[in-house]
Structure prediction request, 489 residues.
Amino acid sequence: MKEKQSGSGKLTFRVVNNMLAFAGGEFFYHLVNFFSGVMIARSLGKEQYGQFSFIFVYLSLFEIFTQFGMNSILTRELAQKKETADELLGNAVLLRLALIIFSLPFVFFIVRGLGYSLSVQQSVWIASFQLFLGIRSIFETVFRANLKMVYPAVWNVLRAVLNLGLVAIVASRSPAIPLFIGAYLASGFVGLAGLGWFSSRFVRIRFRPRWQLISYLLRESAPLLTAGYLSLLYCRIDVLMLSKMKSFSEVGYYSVATRLAEPLDMISNSLMISLFPLLSRSFKENREEFEAFSSQAFSGLLLVGLPVAIGGGFVAKDLVHFFFGEEYLPSGVTLGILFWYTFFGFLSTFFVNLLMACGRQIVDAWLSFLLLLGNIGLNLLLIPKLSYNGSALATVLTELIGTSIMFLYASRHREIKLFFLTKELVTALKINAVFALILLGFSAWWQMPWTVFIGLSVFVYGALLFLFRAVSWNRLKNYLSHWTGIGRG
Prediction:
């Protein structure tokens, strides 16, 4: 008789599959959007592409306010109180609509007051409709709490494919910033409508205002809003400062580098989206599971993020030249720097979600405030000397400081007490020290195309994981057994 699968094994299987399904959808979504961005950058040129990038960075400052940090709180509440899901989601939608309507006048008046050109202002006015697309994330919490992220992933892919088609039409006929914005909005609202319709299969949302529930959402989400705003500012303030201290051309160079680096964030986001509901429950109910989930997530993000930062620097210029052309070649150095931001961002995503799951979001809020001040100071110091490379370096240094502080806090806090994470850190550093030496040897003694270099690097790193026993065949077999039926009851 086959051995019965344990409850924890089934749960792990659901988490991993939810993560992989969502990550697969996100990968395809970002891949399609990446090529949309390549077409836009090549069609507009660095000056206009800098303007295009600035517009969406500017609007993100208002988008974070309209979201009000509710997404994680909604997921937590849905995971713990499923019986109130219909009323909870209805009030969340009403609250977000109110925040969007409140924000729109500020969107128009502030961009005008900052003295940007009339064409930039007009494009901002058109693009401001993207704030309504933020309602999509409320529908996504239904699937997130139920470990069903494959459904929003599918709708995101459909939205990205539609956007790619519309961008291709605009690029081939009449490339212009307002038309590219229109393509983004049209595909976005189609995706929003589809996801809203499909979520009704799981929860029938009730739009009955309850001030007590709305005030609870505001109160619980306020620290996350503060942290989200501060985090966004220290990640995006560089674009605003570049646009004023330098020019939109410098913004264009910087935006190309971020376009290549930022899609990697889907790895950490996919894992933590799947794991967050389980961390929230296990923190209160099962200390052993809480430690196991935390350890596995931290170790996995370390072992994936660190080789990306190390290996990415070797191929950064080749990637920029291949995708965006010679005009954007100066962005290669910037991309090499931002790969390190990606690594520290992996770990920061883990710690931020951990603090929220443990009810310590106020720590993230205070830390984000301090990091914002540090980031502004670093940008003021580095942009005049290093331009867009200075912005990238300031971002990396800020993320390094923030991640280090959260690591120490999680290791020493009396309720969290994740002191064992140091062991995973040491193991990852050993593996990647050897990996870096091997890559240096490759680059010094063997000239090869960047595609071959990446493929060989992945093979070498995989071998090192097994050699240092960071990954074992037994662990892979245990997971694969769920697919083949081995170990099922």
Q: What stands out?
A: The longest helix spans residues 7-67.
